[in-house]
Amino acid sequence: QDLLQYFLSFGAKGLIGIAALGVLNIIFGVVALQLGSYFRSGHHDEVFERITHPAVRRVIDVVLVFSGFAMGFVMLAGAGANLEQQFGLPAWAGSAVCAGLVILTAFLDFDRIMKVIGVFTPMIVIAIVVLVVYSLVTPHPSVAELNATATQVSPALPNLWFSAINYFALCVVNGIGMAFVLGGSVLRIREARLAGRIGGAIIALVIGGDALALYLNMDRIWDVNVPALEIARMIHPAFAFVYTLIIFALIYNTVFSLFFATARRFSGGSTKRMRIVLMGVVALGYAASLMGFKKLIGGMYPIIGWLGVALLVVLAAGWLRERAGVSHEEKLRRMLIRLLVHKHADHLEYTDEHREKARELSRASVADSKQLRRDASALAKDIADRKPNASPSDLVTQGAGEG
Q: 330 and 299, same structural domain?
């Protein structure tokens, strides 16, 4: 529904906007994961603390909390629309089922539940591939006819390029926290950079494939709440049933994650208080979701997107300021790993000079020196263990490459 309103309402040229969005997502993946790795962040606040003023950081925090809550109740509305379209269940009832499951999860082992639900993530990628293949091999109207139908969709914003920027900012708002944490778990900055490229490219392909499938079926899906589900119903009722369950599971996962993060923020570390706050947040979110899925997409998403533009400015400024530091840190970690390979390889010498140099490099890092050295040592040991019979020069070269 968001792709329909943001991009495909402009017809075929909306696919150009989708392509631009894909490029921006790749750039974002590279920047966000590198910054996370650079600072070894365990939380988004740790990065913003380093790259912006405290007052700006507090504003960003408010934006992220509000955006998480707003996205949560839009998703609740989506859960209702999903079940209504497939099973004829009233939208308010479908949203209530999802809201009830979110509250119930807070009283169960939600880590285990989230792992089970996580299985559905690769399944949606497979499902979208099926939608794309079906759309490409079946007859569809001409581009002129599809464009004419597209004009009947009310656009989220009046201009395609505003739409692309706003939607990208929306993606950043929702992805920045996890991107920083994922990057922070990676010692090697080069690896984080590569992961950002690959992850951004996968997202670009998934969104691009989904948008293409929607566009080719524009004449049949332009006025429905969950357009991709309508295409799934054209393929086969059984496939539509499975697709509905996948979508519902992913929405439930998303809503719980967003509302749980909001509740935890105001619970002071108390599980009991977190559950009470969560119930209040879910109740408010459910009430807001009753405005309807289409209306919320067209109303709330642009607001979140424009708030996200401010976040983009902060992120871009921080990246430009830290670029030289990231490059220097990458070289520093490469040197540190190379030194520590000497420590763990039996046939290499590890001298007092090596030890002192390793300490010096650790202290010079922007990351926590003790944790950095532990992680670098573990990686160096892994390199030495993987190639126990390698020549000293090969081992050192391998260590130098792990920067």
A: no
